[in-house]
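Hey, I was hoping to borrow your eyes for a little while. I've been puzzling over a protein and I'd love to understand its fold better. The fold is given in discrete form, as structure tokens running alongside the sequence. I'd be grateful if you could look everything over and explain what you see. No rush at all, and the record is pasted right below.
>
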Amino acid sequence: MPYPEYICAPMRQELTAAGFEELKTVEEVDSTIPTSKGTLLLVLNSVCGCAAGTARPGVKLSLQHAKKPTKLTTVFAGQDLEATAEARKFTLPYPPSSPAIALFKDGKLVHFLERHHIEGRSAEMIAENLTAAYEEFC
């Protein structure tokens, strides 16, 4: 059973206000991730306070870097169930994890932060990890 929208809405807005496009359907995921040109950042958003509470601010902070992804996308784990399941197909061989952050280049996964890379880390630490990946791939 998905989380109620009223719980997720502020967490969705935190990313959409920063320019992220929500992928809410399997079709949106399939027409976006594998065919993307350049770099695409995918945030598997979550209600988890212990990890998502720093993941979203860390991602937003990373976007202040000179090099950054050309496209920003997000799916919401625990709410957009089918879209999240489809997005996770593109993050294999990593097991399902939320929150999680994936960087793709020309439709191929090149960098991935699993929940255990996020939980217990500050927004600044998450941003540092991402900006290093942007330097390499963007």
In short: The helical segments are 5-16, 26-32, 52-62, 81-89, 115-118, 123-137. The beta strands are 21-22, 39-45, 71-76, 100-105, 108-113. The radius of gyration is 13 Å. The longest strand covers residues 39-45.
